[in-house]
From TrEMBL:
<comment type="function">
    <text>Cell wall formation. Catalyzes the addition of glutamate to the nucleotide precursor UDP-N-acetylmuramoyl-L-alanine (UMA).</text>
</comment>
<keyword id="KW-0573">Peptidoglycan synthesis</keyword>
<keyword id="KW-0067">ATP-binding</keyword>
<keyword id="KW-0963">Cytoplasm</keyword>
<dbReference type="InterPro" id="IPR005762">
    <property type="entry name" value="MurD"/>
</dbReference>
<dbReference type="GO" id="GO:0005737">
    <property type="term" value="C:cytoplasm"/>
</dbReference>
<keyword id="KW-0961">Cell wall biogenesis/degradation</keyword>
<dbReference type="GO" id="GO:0008764">
    <property type="term" value="F:UDP-N-acetylmuramoylalanine-D-glutamate ligase activity"/>
</dbReference>
<dbReference type="Pfam" id="PF08245">
    <property type="entry name" value="Mur_ligase_M"/>
</dbReference>
<dbReference type="Pfam" id="PF02875">
    <property type="entry name" value="Mur_ligase_C"/>
</dbReference>
<comment type="similarity">
    <text>Belongs to the MurCDEF family.</text>
</comment>
<dbReference type="GO" id="GO:0071555">
    <property type="term" value="P:cell wall organization"/>
</dbReference>
<dbReference type="InterPro" id="IPR013221">
    <property type="entry name" value="Mur_ligase_cen"/>
</dbReference>
<dbReference type="InterPro" id="IPR036615">
    <property type="entry name" value="Mur_ligase_C_dom_sf"/>
</dbReference>
<keyword id="KW-0547">Nucleotide-binding</keyword>
<protein>
    <recommendedName>
        <fullName>UDP-N-acetylmuramoylalanine--D-glutamate ligase</fullName>
        <ecNumber>6.3.2.9</ecNumber>
    </recommendedName>
</protein>
<keyword id="KW-0132">Cell division</keyword>
Length: 445
């Protein structure tokens, strides 16, 4: 029997890592400071994997030869600090899974658009008949799939927190959508720390790998100029594509790769709006690297149905449209949402503020927003940022209250937009729970 692998966190990623560790002959122990969901307890029991919840048996964990940590646990947690001080490797589930597979990986990160791009890329590859898995922030745990499936390719959405725990892992195709301030509370309120975290997606890449990135993003451009980039660079942007990569000409997206040129009208893309043009170009380039044929790519880019909780046009009630954008957990996401709506907006915003700077939204809010419904335990920053921009700004302490207030403030032809610009953990389990509650309350109107 190999030594002990301790898993911190008993959610999807932790349980997946536990199953893989057991399969590879390690002794395994799962420890969660909070409660473990029943469905995961059942899985651990079925596999006869030991676990605890509500506390950490520190002595046991400190004796492990390797610790796999949930991305939700900060590096500053006392137990994590102790482990690192004594030299115990603390890694992410993705890093652990990567050690036991030789499958090709397309890894996608960015402050915004990464889920849509990941699901779109997966859709293209799956439709083209590739044996492909979906993992990371979406889909099933990567380690779990490595343990029990046999995929040739994985499309993996990576958050900065997952990247922070990755050391030897390498992406065959690394995709960086954009970098805007997010999670600064976890990065000592220092933007460079967050940028460095995102650029970890390039670690261990060689000249045989690919780096797909947004050329229109000033932060990325500036950073590329400072670094030695080894992989083949494939930029995308809304200007013309000069060399390999993607761009726009005469309302068509053009992708150049290896003497191939793919072209398609922007109007035929299933995902409309500027931000979605970026998402479609990034997914398109990644797919061309994997030799997807033009007609398959064109078909998939035109029939993809989008992502739940991301600018999801949900229902119309008495001429008022309700849009669920619960996945907008940062300011930049909400900027895209507000930018894409062309009717007067009643905006439901708020939650756990991650060090947000709302100034970039003030122009859009002044021009488009009639009223704001603040949904969070502490709404002072929203009042301060937008009190002078809109006539009505009200507080709500539950989704029921928020939807009713928005409905009351809206008129026929208006749009009620849930796009919180904040994390959801003060009132909800996660952004899905927040979006589902929104839809339930809209149905109840």
């Amino acid at each position: 029997m190999k030594g002990l692998v301790a898993i911190l966190g008993g959610g999807e990623s932790g349980v997946g890592a536990a199953i893989l560790a057991q399969k590879k002959g390690y002794e395994v122990f799962v420890s969660d400071l909070g409660k473990i969901k029943e469905k995961y307890k059942d899985v651990l029991s079925n596999y006869k994997i030991g676990f605890e919840e509500g506390y950490h048996s520190e002595e046991k964990i400190l004796g492990a030869e390797l610790v796999v940590k949930s991305p939700g646990i900060p590096e500053t947690a006392p137990l994590v600090k102790q482990l690192k001080e004594q030299g115990t490797p603390v890694i992410s589930e993705i890093e652990f899974g990567g050690r036991f597979t030789s499958a090709k990986t397309i890894c996608i990160t960015g402050s915004n658009g990464k889920t849509t791009t990941t699901l779109l890329t997966y859709h293209i590859l799956q439709k083209a008949g590739l044996n492909v898995g979906l993992a990371g922030n979406v889909g099933k745990s990567f380690a779990w799939q490595v343990a029990e499936e046999n995929f040739d390719v994985y499309v993996i959405e990576l958050s900065s927190f997952q990247l922070d725990g990755m050391y030897e892992f390498k992406a065959d195709v690394a995709v960086l959508m954009n970098i805007t301030p997010d999670h600064l509370d976890r990065y000592g309120y220092d933007m460079q720390n967050y940028i460095d975290s995102k650029f970890r997606i390039l670690q261990n890449q060689s000249a045989n790998d690919y780096f797909v990135y947004c050329a229109d993003d000033e932060v990325i451009q500036k950073e590329i100029n400072k670094r030695e980039i080894k992989p083949v660079q494939l930029p995308f942007g809304l200007g013309e594509a000069a060399g390999p990569g993607a761009g726009v000409r005469d309302n068509r997206i053009i992708i150049n790769f290896n003497q191939n040129q793919f072209s398609m009208s922007i109007l035929d893309l299933s995902l409309q709006g500027k931000h979605n043009t970026y998402n479609s170009m990034a997914a398109g380039i990644a797919s061309m690297v994997l030799k997807i044929r033009d007609e398959q790519l064109r078909e998939s880019l035109s029939d993809f149905t989008g992502v739940e909780h991301r600018l999801e046009r949900f229902l119309k009630v008495h001429g008022i449209e309700f849009i669920n954008d619960s996945k907008a957990t940062n300011v930049n996401s909400s900027w895209y949402a507000l930018e894409s709506v062309h009717k007067p907006v009643i905006w439901i915003a708020g939650g756990v503020d991650k060090g947000n700077d709302y100034t970039m939204l003030q122009g859009l809010v002044t021009n488009k927003v009639k009223a704001i419904v603040c949904l969070g335990k502490n709404n002072a920053k929203l009042h301060e940022a937008f009190g002078d921009c809109v006539a009505d700004i009200v507080d709500a302490s539950s989704m029921e209250e928020a939807v009713k207030a928005a409905y009351y403030l809206a008129r026929n032809g208006d749009t009620v937009l849930l796009s919180p610009a904040c994390a959801s953990f003060d009132l909800f389990e996660n952004y899905e729970d927040r979006g589902n509650q929104f839809k339930k309350e809209v149905r109840n109107l």
